[in-house]
Design goal:
Immunoglobulin-like, 219 residues, Thrombin, subunit H, globular, six-stranded mixed sheet, 2 domains, mainly beta, five-stranded antiparallel sheet
Length: 219
Amino acid sequence: MSAISWKQQQLGRSQLLFLKLLDSNNQLCKVLMESITCELESDITGTRARNSVERRGQSQYEISYQPTIKGRHQLHIKVEGHHIRGNPFPFSAKSPGEKFGAPILTIGKVEQPEGVAINQRGEVVVTVYSGHCVNVFTSSGERLRSFGTHGSGLGQFQCPCGVAVDGEENVLVADSINHHVQKFTAQGDFLTAVKVVGLSSLIVLLALHTMLVLVGCTW
């Protein structure tokens, strides 16, 4: 879910996901803890393992999981029976020190890319942590546009991290220094923002029907 860490994980090492649920008005959304499920599936064996979910505050939950088989896995997360947007989340588990495969495509030339999302047209949306902006590329890696400037005002960024695209192709960006989530049109025009205390550089945004899900990862 992070452009670097999510896709590549170590075998036998415990992982944590932190979920924070917001409704369509960007308010904390209350759901029963039992309605949040997470299953880890191995592509090798096809078996699924249920993972523990614990409450860590109002509308905040912690999911722990641990891959025990080498190879590709998929993480299935549901809230009230609905898959989180982007489900399932694939990753590879390899032994410590084992090298991962070479990339199959390089998207543009970007220093310190952080979050990545893909809209319905196949365009690749990338947050640039040190550049304090968002770049949009074609599926073949050609740069289309960029938006955002360095600052603390609306439409500005200070170390943007997670990014998501909703069903209307609006772009949602989590800012690790300004501690807010901003919403833009597909072309980069600012729409709205909400203050969220405690964002880290490994926040991932996911759109789920009328909810906005913030997922923080630690390793």
